[in-house]
Amino acid sequence: MDVPVYLWGWVAFFIRVVIFAPIIEEIIFRGIVFGTIRHKSGRRWALVITTLGFTLLHGVNPVSFVQILIPGIAFVLLYEREGNLAAPVITHAGFNLISTLGLLAETFL
Questions:
Q1: pLDDT at position 8, please?
Q2: Can you give the pTM of this predicted structure?
Q3: Residue 54 near residue 29 (C-beta atoms within 8 A)
């Protein structure tokens, strides 16, 4: 059975958005940037700066800003509570999975 070419694009998109992006973004924003700023300037500034950076990376229109800002704060709080990146990576992947499934439904239904 031949798989349509456009389907492979969706598979690649899914892998990139649901698997790779959460891992890479959490390592950078929570693991490196948050940890560095927290060490130098405290938890509050680290939360504000990394969450704003994370949010701006994903877009600047008012609706998407709020939609990304809230999970960004949650990812920081999970990282702080758990003391490792596993919880924010898994939560981030779940958030991206739900968003991707919504996009697929909107596209094909």
A1: 85
A2: 0.89
A3: yes
